[in-house]
C-alpha cells in the first residue's frame, strides 16, 4: 500500500493511502490537491476517514466525499471493523485515545498515520483528560519496530525540537534529527522518536536524570510519564 502526504492550512497534514486503482483519504482537508492527485493517478477514492473529530481534521471531509463519492467511515464503523481494505491490502485501525477519546491510528506496510496522538518529535495535548489512556496508547505505538515510519497530523518538528533542547540542552541526537527534517515530506521513524521525543523517553537514563534534577517523581514508568507530561 502506498501513501501520499498533503499539507493544508498552516501545519495540518492529511494522507491518501492507495493501491493501483482505489484509495482511502485520512484527514482530507487538502481537498483540491487530493482531487488532483486522484485524477493524476487514475484512482477512485473508495473511503474517507478521520484520525479524530477535531474540526481542523474533519473540515474537508464532507466536500471531499461530495466531490468523489467516497464512503465515509465514521469512528464507530472503524472501531467495529478494526481495518480498512484496499485492493486486498489492509490498513489496521488502532484505537489510541488520549488526545481525544476517539483518536485512532492507522497502520499499513510499515507506517503509522498517527493523527494528533504521536507527532514527529512530540505528542498531542491530552484534551481527553485520560492521562492513563494516553500512556497506554503511546505504549502501543512504541511497540512497533524501530523502522516504522511515523506520519503525523501536524508539522510541529521545529517547535518540538526547540522544546526538547530546552529540556536537555546537550542532547546528542537533536541536530541529526533536524537534518532529516523536510517540510515537503514530514516523517520520522520510531527509532528516531525513541532517541529524541521526550514523551517516549520515560525509560531513558538521560530523561530519568532530568526528572531527578527537577525533583519530579520517577520511581516507576507511569510516574515518569506523568512527570514528563508536566514539563509541557
Automatic annotation (TrEMBL):
<dbReference type="InterPro" id="IPR036866">
    <property type="entry name" value="RibonucZ/Hydroxyglut_hydro"/>
</dbReference>
<dbReference type="InterPro" id="IPR032282">
    <property type="entry name" value="HAGH_C"/>
</dbReference>
<dbReference type="InterPro" id="IPR001279">
    <property type="entry name" value="Metallo-B-lactamas"/>
</dbReference>
<keyword id="KW-0479">Metal-binding</keyword>
<keyword id="KW-0862">Zinc</keyword>
<dbReference type="GO" id="GO:0046872">
    <property type="term" value="F:metal ion binding"/>
</dbReference>
<dbReference type="Pfam" id="PF00753">
    <property type="entry name" value="Lactamase_B"/>
</dbReference>
<keyword id="KW-0378">Hydrolase</keyword>
<protein>
    <recommendedName>
        <fullName>hydroxyacylglutathione hydrolase</fullName>
        <ecNumber>3.1.2.6</ecNumber>
    </recommendedName>
</protein>
<dbReference type="Pfam" id="PF16123">
    <property type="entry name" value="HAGH_C"/>
</dbReference>
<feature type="domain" description="Metallo-beta-lactamase">
    <location>
        <begin position="11"/>
        <end position="154"/>
    </location>
</feature>
<dbReference type="GO" id="GO:0004416">
    <property type="term" value="F:hydroxyacylglutathione hydrolase activity"/>
</dbReference>
<comment type="pathway">
    <text>Secondary metabolite metabolism; methylglyoxal degradation; (R)-lactate from methylglyoxal: step 2/2.</text>
</comment>
<dbReference type="InterPro" id="IPR050110">
    <property type="entry name" value="Glyoxalase_II_hydrolase"/>
</dbReference>
Amino acid at each position: 500500500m502506498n501513501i501520499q502526504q498533503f499539507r493544508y492550512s498552516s501545519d495540518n497534514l492529511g494522507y491518501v493511502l492507495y493501491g493501483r486503482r482505489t484509495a482511502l483519504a485520512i484527514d482530507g482537508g487538502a481537498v483540491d490537491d487530493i482531487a488532483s492527485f486522484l485524477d493524476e493517478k487514475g484512482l477512485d477514492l473508495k473511503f474517507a476517514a478521520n484520525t479524530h473529530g477535531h474540526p481542523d481534521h474533519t473540515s474537508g471531509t464532507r466536500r471531499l466525499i461530495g466531490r468523489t463519492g467516497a464512503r465515509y467511515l465514521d469512528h464507530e464503523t472503524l472501531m467495529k471493523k478494526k481495518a480498512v481494505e484496499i485492493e486486498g491490502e489492509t490498513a489496521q485501525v488502532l484505537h489510541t485515545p488520549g488526545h481525544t477519546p476517539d483518536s485512532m491510528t492507522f497502520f499499513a506496510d510499515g507506517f503509522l498515520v498517527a493523527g494528533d496522538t504521536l507527532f514527529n518529535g512530540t505528542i498531542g495535548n491530552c484534551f481527553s483528560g485520560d492521562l492513563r489512556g494516553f500512556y497506554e496508547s503511546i505504549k502501543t505505538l512504541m511497540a512497533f519496530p524501530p523502522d516504522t515510519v511515523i506520519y503525523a497530523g501536524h508539522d510541529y518538528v521545529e517547535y518540538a525540537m526547540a522544546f526538547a533542547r530546552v529540556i536537555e540542552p546537550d542532547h546528542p541526537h537533536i541536530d541529526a534529527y533536524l537534518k532529516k527534517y523536510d517540510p515537503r515530506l514530514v516523517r520520522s521513524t520510531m527509532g528516531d522518536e525513541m532517541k529524541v521525543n521526550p514523551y517516549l523517553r520515560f525509560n531513558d537514563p538521560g530523561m530519568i536524570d532530568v526528572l531527578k534534577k527537577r525533583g519530579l517523581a520517577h520511581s516507576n514508568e507511569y510516574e515518569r510519564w506523568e512527570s514528563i507530561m508536566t514539563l509541557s
